[in-house]
């Protein structure tokens, strides 16, 4: 494989990454867990946190901490599934690295 074809593959990969980033820009996912709701965008940035008033009781501090961790884990998994689906819609990376 020539240097130029490798450079083209890298350019194609970069273009595909930009296309994926654009497709994910409008995505948003929310996860609810024990009185905690977290919202994440397609860039994996946390864009919203909502906590039920009953969870603000000092005696429920550990429960609140666990609920935040669980909700964050769940919302991240949901967004990763969306990202994987978008990548598959775009043909994955199979077209960039042809089999010999």
TrEMBL record:
Q: Which organism is it from?
A: Candidatus Magasanikbacteria bacterium GW2011_GWA2_40_10
Lineage: superkingdom: Bacteria
- State any single GO MF term: DNA binding
> Which Pfam families does UniProt cross-reference here?
YbaB_DNA_bd
**Classification via SUPFAM superfamilies:** YbaB-like
Q: Which InterPro entries match?
A: YbaB-like_sf, YbaB/EbfC
Q: Which Gene3D superfamilies match?
A: Nucleoid-associated protein YbaB-like domain
Lineage of the source organism? Bacteria, Candidatus Magasanikiibacteriota
Protein name per its UniProtKB record: Nucleoid-associated protein
């Amino acid at each position: 494989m020539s240097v130029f074809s490798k450079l083209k593959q890298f350019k194609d990969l970069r273009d595909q990454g930009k296309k994926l980033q654009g497709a994910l820009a409008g995505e948003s996912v929310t996860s609810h867990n024990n009185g905690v709701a977290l919202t994440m965008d397609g860039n994996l940035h946390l864009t919203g946190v909502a906590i039920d008033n009953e969870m603000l009781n000092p005696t429920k501090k550990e429960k609140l901490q666990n609920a935040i961790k669980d909700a964050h884990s769940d919302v991240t998994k949901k967004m990763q599934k969306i990202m994987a689906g978008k990548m598959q819609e775009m043909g994955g990376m199979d077209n960039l690295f042809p089999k010999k």
